[in-house]
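hi!! sorry for the late reply, been swamped w classes. u asked for the two structures so here they r. pasted raw, havent cleaned anything up. first the sequence of the first protein and right below it the tokens
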Amino acid sequence: REVDPSPNVKAAMEEQTSAERERRAAILKADGEKRSAILSAEGSKQSRILTAEGDKQSRILAAEGVRQAKVLEAQGQRSQTILEKQGEAQGLRITAMGASALDSKALTVLSLESLKEIGAGASTKFVLPLELTKLFEGAADYVGYSRKAPDRQLSEVKDIENALGKSEDILGTIPTAAEMQAELDAIKEEADEALQEIKADGIKDQMSATQPPKELIEPKE
């Protein structure tokens, strides 16, 4: 036989059932909002960590690039200075060796040629680092219309080396293209090794290394 409760009992039971449903819905809603807030905060935290790591890596790589650029620039300036100074020394030595082989007659001819070039210019005033009478006396000696002056004694190679030094001592060791390229390759290799070390110590996966918050662990019933 079925028991039919009174209307008051039915109303009370329905009210209790509705309240229980509302309570459960409120609990589920609050729990969802809590989980969403926790996940949002955790995501913001991981985003800040990764952003900071990225900025750090960027600064390190930029500083390393500047350092390598300065090293290469200094190396290039050093090689350029060495080659320029060696070229100047070689030019001076060649000039000295060439002048040592000139006798008085050759020097007189060169002086007259220089005077001719000066006179061919458009200027009307000239500044000469010598007396014209000395130059004309040398020319007269050369053509045989004046007293005979003793010719200039030619220098021996050993005398030149005693006065100027050996060519190896003056010029030094000039680096070849292969040696300079090898040095640049060594610098590039050091830069690559430094870059690999930076990458090895770089950004790790913080997301995989982070344990889930305790609040997200399902409670045991």
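now the second protein. again sequence first, tokens right under
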Amino acid sequence: MKHRLIIYFLGLSLTATGQLGGDRAHGFLAIPHTARQAILGGSAISAGDAENVQLYQENPANLDSVSDNRFLLTYNNYIADLNSGLFYYAKHIKGIGTFGAGFTFMNYGTFTRTADNGDILGEFSANDNLFTLGYGRSFDSLWVLGANIKFIYGNYADVSQTAIAVDLAAGYRSRDRTFAANLLIKNAGRPLARNSLDERERLPFEINAGVSKRIAKAPFRFHLQWMQAQQWNLSTSDPDAKKKTKTDPDTGEEKFRTFTADNIMRHIVFGSDILLGKAAYLTVAYNYRRKAELGSEARSGLAGFSFGLGIQIKRIGFHYALGGYHPSGNAHYFALTTNINEYIR
């Protein structure tokens, strides 16, 4: 049990807030739950595509009139056989906007319950659940705004916890749809009750931004994402990572932090699509922070890299992503997408 949980929470550190310490609740809110998010390094905030239902839960600014009646079903297998899934549906109402609703579950498995002396007392399970309501609307075909309200419930053995959060998103789309830019304020909220230590934990709050550009007359689209804008220093080896100043150990003088290439790179995720017509794509992305925090000096494996593909066969889209986390294992993401309007015409 301990081994599984250690590996899992290491994985969470890639996309969570970067803040040290154990004051964060519902860390599953910070990890990808669709193949498209996973392919692009953990977040798809750079993408601006109202026809891709995989984008709606993370970025409600992608909800638009063409999102009407689109449906998503995902299954994800993480390191140590932790599992999650997502159901999502979008509906456009003319003159009002586009609404979306989704349910996400995260199953951590069944564990052995023991007494302090090691006696086995039975078993217990642990899981997190998320219900999302989203709304998006476009203005003059270029600017888009969106918002989510999230209801979170977690059950861990005899302990349960609930929380509420909101996401706010804004985006820009060029008229020819070859360029997109997005800004997302994510997981602004708190648990509704204090924990067993009478502390009110915080959710994995993030501010993320991204841009994507498709090359004219070429089958390539490039993605650039700036993650965790709310916190400059993302180094996990620095106990004062949150501070804007640092104390000199010799003089005790407070000094402003200097910019470093390493820390800049921890904020950046690169990605590229190869567009194989309108029905298929291949994608590769690189997350430097993931490589820096989880890669082994002796053998880094695929840590930091993610790969994936998608293909549309008649009315159903099939999507797969491989997320490289650690030399000891990777995560696999599967998604099915469809437009219900195709069945009722």
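hope this helps!! also noticed smth abt the second:
The chain has one domain: 2-20+27-115+122-232+258-344.
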